[in-house]
Each structure stands twice: as structure tokens, then as C-alpha cells.
Design brief:
Helix content: 40-55%
CATH class of the largest domain: Alpha Beta
Radius of gyration: 36 Å
Structural class: alpha+beta
Number of domains: 5
Number of helices: 18
CATH superfamily of the largest domain: Vaccinia Virus protein VP39
Mean pLDDT: 83
Shape: extended
Strand content: 15-25%
CATH topology of the largest domain: Rossmann fold
Low-confidence stretches: 274-293
Length: 614
């Protein structure tokens, strides 16, 4: 093969991968790429890059094997333990102490692979700030370009070998046994968000306190490393911490970061100008800070000049900007910028936007949602057509623009046009009918005279029949009044019974759950709602075994099956549980069969708290 550094065939292969699958490896070190691609080609007995490109085109599944070969996902919990100890004991306490008490703590784990490092950051921050404050303030974003690795990270389940680097006391505190594996705590997992993001081409996550990118830069050439370092400088807040790997080398001539400790590859951001989230790489080298600021101000003014509500969401799913009409209609503002769009009310009200955004990305085209009603405070309701437009730079998705086109006047004119057209059609039909009627009227008048004479006789007999029918109707009416009164009495009795049953269920000190023979919930009293934080309308008709509450529901199924099979009494079950307030309790569950004739049609479960861990 020709030398990769000057081989157009090799560069063509990289460009094909970029165009077909969106993976841009052009910034990677050529020697490293050559070794890995050559290894894959040898396994397929191919000796030319153009042949391998043809193989990829004919066998799309080969992309998976290629990416797994190139993207070496080597990671573990607390990798390089002394470095983590220094970060936890020295660097992070000083950084967190400098933050306002209510300021969100945003962390980006770039190149997170299968998620071990992101969850390590979660453990460290939970230890430093406490679990409650962690859940309230911390958001950790784990990103990678390997979807297979991200799927593993989202599952958050690791075997014993993978968790060997976690100290025993931390593993007991932050992991739950899941068969032979260990699952990261579900309540803390909600603060760790994973998604696909290319650190070289996609918009970076911003306003970070800590950015971890360990042993990833080493795969890039010097120019690409410099681009990544510039993006990291933009992403971090002033004083934010950059955490690199032992194999990474910080460029010695950069003035964007200064070392906290070079031995541990930990740096702090040097204060400097920052643009909007999409400004990096938009304004190439010749522009100075004043030019960038002026251009950004022009972009901001252009957005504000749009007369209808407009939102910008970046490729990470964060709200990047909104113009004045959008802020007024949806009650959002600058404090909402940088938040996950799917967590904001505007993402699902007045119309569900998460689906159209995903469709716009997948189909690479604008997606419209028509007939949306917008209601701002103290203003008349307006009609809008929503357009979701994907924003791409080359093959990389930069985000989406969401336009709420005001079509109120158009809809009113369309309604008026439809009404006028309908009235015109009716008038034309009436004229046609009138002409036909006039033609037949003369003939009908002649026959009518004759009919009138016979009608008088018929009217006499009809009158007699009507008098008879009137008597029958009066009798029927009396019967209906009697039936109506009986129905009213039955309804009142039913209301009394329902109120009586409701008072009984409410009066129970314990939670009462009634299930049918198929384990579906029929009754869920208020005490059960208070204990487990699940409303009755959420669980009614749901299989008891599938309800996720603080009680181990699986322990209730065997005695429940026994009572349903035999309709006989079974012993009470005592289990450990956690209430909706997160308080550990000991709960006794008693079972009583519901019988109809000689068979069991369900069961009553009474859940009574015996004691709690104060």
C-alpha cells in the first residue's frame, strides 16, 4: 500500500466513512488510523483501501466492526486512583467552594466510552456534596461517538470485574446488586445523561465547572488537538477545571489553560472571551474579538427581528436561544438557556416537539406541525404552524431551529372562504330546487284540490285515532315517570354505597390494594398513594408485579398466587421498603381472598408500616 500520509485512496476512504455514517476521522493521527484499518483489512484479506471501501458499501454491517477497531474503548472506574484522589481531595473542593450555593454544577465527560468514568465523577461529587445536593444541583453529560458504548453506559450495569476498581464501601453505597452484576443507583443515575456528540464537529456543552476528557486527545494530530482545546476553553466557565488523561499532552504554547498540576494532567481555564454556543469554528482565523462580538450581536438582533416565536436547540439537546415573541408566549428567558430542551414545558406544550425534532434529524429535512394554538397571558389565542428545521454544517448536525409561524389571519380567511363557498353552494342548490318546484307546482295544485276533498274525510278518522293514541301516550308517560323515580332511587343508593366504600378505604391506617385474579389493580386507597407516591389512576388496571414502588413487589406474588389458587388464608408477609419520601420502613402485608360463589376472584392486600428508621 502507498504511504498513508500521502495516499489519496486512504483519504478517500476516510471521506466515504464521514459522508456515509457521519464519523469524521480526518483529524486522527494517520499512523494510528493506518494500523487499525490495516488490521481490519487483513482480517478480511483485502489489500487496497478502495477495495475496503467497496466492501463497506456492500456490507454495511462492517461499519460496526470498523468502528469497534478504531474506537478503542479502554476505561474503568477510578482509573489512575492517585489522580482521582487528588481531584477529590484538593481540586474539586476548592472549585465547588467558589461557586454560589444555588448555581448548577455542570460536568462534561467527553469520550466517556461505556460510562465508567462518568459514574466515577458522579460518585466523587456525591461524596463531596451529599446525595441530596447532588440530585438537586449536579448534571453530568457523558458523550461519545460510539453508540454501542453509549448503550452500555445508559444501562449502568457492570460485572464484578468492571467494578473491581471501586472501593468496597463506595460500591455498597452507590451500586445495587442485579443478579451477578452491579447496577448504579437509579436515583443518582437520573443526573447522568448520555448522548452522541463529536467533540470536533458538534457544538460543545457550555457553562461547565469540570470537563473530563481522558486519553482521547492522544489519538488526534496536533492541529486537531488545538481545535479540541479551543472548544474545551469555550465550554468551561471561568475557573473551570479541565481533567485530561496521563497519555494526553497539553499543548505547551497554549494560553487558554494553566496547569493546576501537570503530573496529574489537571488544568484550569484562563479567563478569556467567549461567544455563543455555536460560535466556535464559525468565524475562521482572521476575525478579532471585536469582529466576532459585532457579528454575534448582528445574529442576535436578526433572531430578535423575527416577528414570530423562534427557538434554537443545539445538537446536545440544550436550549441555545429564543427571541422576544418566544420568551413572551412560552414564559422562558436567559435562565433557561443551557437547560435540556426536553425538560422545559415548551418541549411538549402547546405541542409535542421532541418527536418532530428527532424526525428532522433522522430525515435531514424540515418537519411541520400544523394547527397549533398559542395562548400568551392576557392576549387572544393565536394559530400557528410549527416548523422544525435541522441545521447542518457539512455532515455534522449543529442543532435545530423551531419556528412558530403565525397563521391566525390565514386561518380566519380560510374559514371565511370555506363559509362563503358553502353558502354559495347552498344558494345555487336552492335556486335549482326552486325552478324545479315551480314547474311541478301547477300540476300539484290541480291534484291538490281533488285531494283536499278526500282529506277532510281522512282527517276525521285520523282525529279519532289521535285521541286514542293520546290516551295510550298518557299511560306510557305515567309508566316512564315511575321508572325514572325508581332509577333515581337506585342511583342515590349507589352513590351512598360508593361514598361508604370510599370512607372505609380512606379510614384504613394502612395502604389497601385490591387486585383481580390476573393481578391487575382494582383499588388503590389514599394511604397507599401517600406511602408509595403513586396515584390510583396511574396504577388502576396495571399488573401489580410491574409497578415500580419502594416495596419489593416481587415478594408479594407467591402468597398472592396461593390465595388466588386456593381461596384460603395465607400468612402475612413482612418486607423492608422505602416510602415515597425516601424513608426506610418495615411493612407488613396481609392477604384476604375475594370470593364469588366457591371461587376466588381476587385478593385484598393491606400494607401496614410496623416501624421506620428514624
Amino acid at each position: 500500500m502507498a504511504d498513508v500520509e500521502t495516499s489519496p485512496e486512504f483519504e478517500g476512504l476516510l471521506e466515504y466513512v464521514k459522508q456515509s455514517r457521519g464519523f469524521d476521522f480526518t483529524g486522527y493521527k494517520r499512523a494510528s488510523l493506518r494500523r487499525r484499518i490495516d488490521k481490519r483489512m487483513r482480517e478480511l484479506s483485502l489489500d487496497a483501501y478502495e477495495f475496503y471501501g467497496e466492501h463497506l458499501e456492500l456490507h454495511p454491517q462492517e461499519f460496526i466492526a470498523l468502528f469497534n477497531t478504531i474506537l478503542i474503548n479502554v476505561t474503568s472506574f477510578f482509573r489512575d486512583a492517585p489522580t482521582w484522589k487528588y481531584l477529590q481531595d484538593d481540586v474539586l473542593p476548592r472549585r465547588l467552594a467558589a461557586l454560589p450555593p444555588d448555581r448548577p454544577i455542570r460536568v462534561w465527560c467527553a469520550g466517556c466510552a461505556s460510562g465508567e468514568e462518568a459514574y466515577t465523577l458522579a460518585i466523587v461529587l456525591a461524596e463531596l456534596r451529599g446525595v441530596d445536593e447532588f440530585k438537586r444541583r449536579v448534571k453530568i453529560y457523558g458523550t461519545d461517538i460510539d453508540e454501542e458504548a453509549l448503550a452500555t453506559a445508559r444501562a449502568a450495569t457492570y460485572d464484578e470485574l468492571a467494578t473491581a476498581g471501586v472501593p468496597t464501601e463506595l460500591r455498597d453505597r452507590y451500586f445495587e446488586q442485579a443478579g451477578e452484576k452491579f447496577a448504579f443507583r437509579a436515583d443518582l443515575r437520573r443526573s447522568v445523561i448520555f448522548g452522541r456528540l463529536d467533540i470536533l464537529n458538534d457544538a460543545p456543552i457550555s457553562r461547565l465547572e469540570l470537563l473530563s476528557c481522558r486519553n482521547t486527545l492522544m489519538y488526534f494530530n496536533a492541529e486537531t488537538q488545538a481545535r479540541a482545546i479551543e472548544r474545551f476553553h469555550f465550554a468551561l466557565a471561568d475557573g473551570g477545571v479541565l481533567f485530561l488523561g496521563n497519555a494526553d499532552t497539553m499543548l505547551s504554547d497554549t494560553d487558554l489553560f494553566e496547569p493546576i498540576d501537570r503530573r496529574y494532567r489537571i488544568f484550569t481555564r484562563v479567563p478569556g472571551p467567549r461567544g455563543r454556543a455555536a460560535s466556535i469554528d464559525r468565524f475562521p482565523g482572521a476575525l478579532d474579538d471585536d469582529d466576532v462580538r459585532a457579528t454575534l450581536e448582528m445574529h442576535a438582533l436578526a433572531l430578535e427581528a423575527v416577528p414570530f416565536p423562534t427557538l434554537l436547540v443545539d445538537s446536545s439537546g440544550l436550549l441555545a436561544d429564543a427571541n422576544e415573541p418566544a420568551r413572551e408566549v412560552f414564559a422562558i428567558g436567559p435562565p433557561d438557556y443551557g437547560h435540556l430542551f426536553q425538560e422545559l414545558e415548551v418541549s411538549y406544550r402547546p405541542v409535542e416537539l421532541r418527536g418532530p425534532i428527532a424526525q428532522a434529524y433522522s430525515e435531514r429535512r424540515s418537519v411541520r406541525v400544523n394547527g397549533v394554538r398559542l395562548a400568551a397571558h392576557d392576549k387572544p389565542v393565536r394559530n400557528a404552524d410549527v416548523e422544525v428545521v435541522p441545521l447542518y454544517r457539512a455532515a455534522s448536525a449543529m442543532g435545530v431551529a423551531i419556528f412558530f409561524h403565525d397563521v391566525t389571519v390565514i386561518r380566519e380567511l380560510e374559514d371565511q372562504l370555506r363559509q362563503s363557498t358553502h353558502e354559495l353552494e347552498q344558494a345555487y342548490q336552492e335556486v335549482q330546487s326552486t325552478n324545479e318546484e315551480l314547474e311541478t307546482t301547477n300540476e300539484e295544485l290541480q291534484s291538490t284540490i281533488e285531494e283536499v276533498e278526500t282529506t277532510n274525510g281522512e282527517l276525521q278518522s285520523t282525529n279519532e285515532r289521535l285521541e286514542t293514541m293520546n290516551e295510550v301516550l298518557e299511560s306510557t308517560n305515567d309508566d316512564l315517570h315511575a321508572v325514572t323515580e325508581e332509577l333515581r332511587l337506585c342511583r342515590d343508593e349507589l352513590d351512598d354505597l360508593n361514598q361508604f366504600l370510599e370512607s372505609i378505604l380512606t379510614s384504613f391506617r394502612g395502604g389497601v390494594v385490591v387486585v383481580d385474579a390476573q393481578h391487575r389493580v382494582r383499588v388503590w386507597n389514599p394511604r397507599a398513594e401517600d406511602l408509595w407516591g403513586v396515584r390510583a389512576d396511574e396504577v388502576r388496571g396495571v399488573d401489580l408485579a410491574s409497578i415500580d414502588i419502594g416495596m419489593p413487589v416481587a415478594a408479594l406474588i407467591p402468597p398472592l398466587n396461593a390465595i388466588l389458587d386456593s381461596a384460603a388464608s395465607v400468612d402475612d408477609v413482612v418486607v423492608d421498603a422505602v416510602t415515597r419520601r425516601g424513608r426506610p420502613v418495615v411493612c407488613r402485608v396481609s392477604f384476604t381472598p375475594l370470593r364469588s360463589s366457591e371461587r376466588s376472584t381476587g385478593a385484598i392486600l393491606v400494607m401496614e408500616v410496623l416501624e421506620s428508621d428514624r
